[in-house]
Write a structure and sequence with these properties.
Blueprint lengths: L3 E4 L4 E4 L3 H15 L11 E6 L2 E7 L6 E5 L7 E7 L2 E8 L2 H13 L5 H5 L10
Antiparallel strand pairs: 1-2, 3-4, 4-7, 5-6, 6-7
């Protein structure tokens, strides 16, 4: 679970230290050993529950040029959308699983929603994909 690997979604090498990555890398390695040729290519994802807080992150949440807050930190449930050159490259969500689901789709499609629309809690994330 600590293999440094190229990631086609991030365009760089990454090392992901979590259980899901270890399981999925192992399954991919077994597939190659059994004669498959499908390369391992997954969007990085992480989650944890800490008491009543659920934290999830998907995509690139470090190397970006803009971060857009959706919600209020004080509320205990908010999201941060990370953009690079206008495209959503990652999402961090605190107790907002729908933001992760929609954010994953945005990253995969390289969506370029207006930052103001991302920040506006009344906007439907599905329309921004």
């Amino acid at each position: 679970d600590v293999a440094n690997q190229p990631n086609p979604y991030l365009g760089r090498r990454v090392r992901l230290e979590n259980v899901q990555n270890a399981q999925n890398q192992g399954a991919a390695a077994a597939g190659v050993i059994m004669g498959g040729a499908t390369p391992f290519a997954e969007l990085p994802y992480f989650w944890t529950d800490q008491f009543e807080i659920n934290l999830q992150a998907v995509g690139e949440t470090v190397l970006c040029d803009q971060a857009v807050l959706r919600g209020r930190v004080e509320s205990g449930a908010f999201s941060v959308f990370y953009l690079t050159a206008g495209a959503v490259t990652g999402v961090l969500a605190i107790s907002q699983p729908k933001s992760i689901a929609m954010g994953r789709r945005m990253v995969m499609k390289r969506s370029q929603p207006a930052p103001a629309a991302l920040a506006d809690e009344s906007s439907d994330l599905r329309t921004l994909i």
